[in-house]
Amino acid sequence: KYGIVGRGEDTHHGFRITEMVEKPKTGTAPSNLYINGRYILQPEIFKILEGQEKGAGNEIQLTDAMLKLEKQQAFYGYHYQGRTFDCGSPEGFVEANVAFALWRNDMNQSMAGVIRTLLDEMKPSERRGAAF
Description:
By secondary structure, the protein is of the alpha+beta class. The chain folds into two domains: 4-77, no CATH class; 90-127, no CATH class. 33% of the residues lie in helices and 14% in strands. It has helices spanning 44-50, 62-70, 90-103, 108-121; strands at 4-10, 15-21, 33-34, 75-77. It is elongated. The relative contact order is 0.12.
């Protein structure tokens, strides 16, 4: 489901990335460290992307370009300790937005009320077995 990186030596703020595998098959991943889609890339990546052939999903894949660039310069990763959300699905996108609203001091009370009201308005059969 996710791109996975191989972990090399530790650095002051993270680790060296030794490989990147886009959505590896079960049991073949080089680690349990996934790529969460946040990058700080050097400008050279754009030159590579310009000539990049379409890959998975008939799309130009950033990971493929990163693999080419990795042969020329080192890539480093940061082991993020916070909460992450998978915004690649409708449910994950909604979850991220609800969490964001509930974390904000200026709107968490009103949004919690909105969520309670929406849940109260749902018929039990619409809740798909969820206990609220």
